[in-house]
Amino acid sequence: MSIGPEASITDERSAPTDDPAAERGSGEKAIAGRSLKQIAWRRLKRDKVALAGAVVVILLVIMAILAPVLTRLWGYPINEFHGDQIDPTIQTPLGAYGGISKDFLLGVEPGSGRDIFSRILYGAQTTLVVAILSALVSTILGGLLGLAAGYLGGWVDSVISRVMDFLLAFPQLLFAIALVSVLPDDLFGLDGRWSRVIVLIGVIGFFGWPYIGRIVRGQTLSLREREFVEASKSLGARSGRILFKELLPNLAAPILVYTTLIIPTNILTDAALSFLGVGIPPPNPSWGGMLSDALTYYTFDPMYMIIPGSMIFITVLAFNLFGDGLRDALDPKAR
């Protein structure tokens, strides 16, 4: 039987002692270590405001996914006209608060009588798809290019940095208006709604990557001088392994945080483009398009402007609160 250091330590711990402090200490439960994920989760659970934002985000996503089901249960088809709900004289909904009733939970649209509840649900579906997928495009492009610029340096860093400066100075909104205006509505063989969704995802995602690219580049410049990177180089690791196995996992926290914070910006951009008439084409529902239509009727029917405006406000606020809480939870310097 071999006796090593572990055996000797075990014997010392099991041996009786006359020290009362040691006896009290042996009866206490040992403090278990926690991983970074456990620490972040504990911090996030204590942030009630961030959790409330996360709950609202989850509910909005569920509403968007189940929009067809909810419409069949409590609404009407999005383009079904209800002329009997409209005052023929001034083209505003009959009844108070924009025609809200048990049959029309959020009222009806002025002039046409379309169900606002159903159009809000399908508008949430479109808005969240555009915002989340364009944020994903920005994250992938910005993460890869920022990682390459920060680690490789030299002319690669110079070229990527100049491209980021150019895109940050370029008028994104004007380019999106000009591009979307000349594209056909049936692009990619899809209908007008989803073909325009793909175009908006590409435009918003392409112009959004320089923001996260700068953050990733700055973090990479700091990490590439750390000891674990030098150790990997000394062991003969290739650049690809260092980039994706050593550096990228250490950049996951800031990338994740910035992705959650860029989504509300994309929501506002999508709403602005639809408000200007170059977003989702009518008669497809969109929150920005509903706000644009409400300009004609807001003096007679303010609810038609309040409802989509409130949805945009609640959605953006929920994503921002959750993103701020996630940033605080993943910050290693936070207490």
Give a nutshell description of this structure.
The chain is mainly alpha-helical. The chain is 69% helix and 0% strand. Helix 9 packs antiparallel against helix 12.
Approximate strand percentage: under 5%
What about the largest sheet? none
Measured as a percent range, the helix fraction is: 55-70%
The total beta strand count reads 0
Runs in which pLDDT lies below 50 for 5 or more consecutive residues are: 1-27
How would the global form be characterised?
elongated
Intertermini distance: 48 Å
Put simply, the count of helices is 14
- Category by helix and strand content: mainly alpha
Mean pLDDT: 83
The rounded Rg comes to 28 Å
* SSE order: HHHHHHHHHHHHHH
